[in-house]
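User: What would this chain look like folded?
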Amino acid sequence: MDAEQQAVRLVPSRHEEWLLRYTEMAGCLAALLPGAHLEHIGSTAVPGLPAKDVVDVLVGVDATRVVEVAHRLRDAGLDLEGELTHHCWLSAPDRRARTLVVHVVEHGGRAWTRRLTFRDLLRRDADACERYLRVKEAAARGSAGWDDYTQAKTQVVADLLTRA
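Assistant: Here's the prediction, encoded as C-alpha cells.
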C-alpha cells in the first residue's frame, strides 16, 4: 500500500519510548553527518500528546547541502520519500512501515524555525496543545491517508504559529 493511502492512527503518548527512538537515530545521524543540527520534532516530542507512532527528526544543514545530505541518507539505507531543494524527507525503515521520518532542511531557515517554534509552543501552552489535539483527532478519523491528514492540520498549525 502506498504511504499516502495508509490509515492514520493516533496512539496514546509514549514519550519515553519516542525519546529513546529519537536519541538512537540522532546518534546514527550525527555519525553520518558531522556538524548537522538535530532536533526531535512533531507530536512525539511533546510529552503527553497522542501521536502517530512515528518519530520525526529534524536535520539542519547549510541550504546548499539539503539535497546532497538527503542522498547521503538514502545511500545509508533510509527511504527517500520526497525531495525539494529546501526540504527532503526520508523514512525508516521505509515508507510502508515508518517508525521514523527524517526531515532535512536549511538550519536556521523558515522550515527549521517554524517546526521548532511549533514544537515549543505545544510544549509550553496547554490550550494550544489541546486545540491541536482536537484537530489531529478529527484529521485522523477523516483522512484517506498521510497526505490528507497533514493537509487537514495545515490551518490550525498556521493559526497557532501566528500566536507563537
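Residues 63 and 161 are 23 Å apart (CA to CA). If you want, I can go into more detail on any region.
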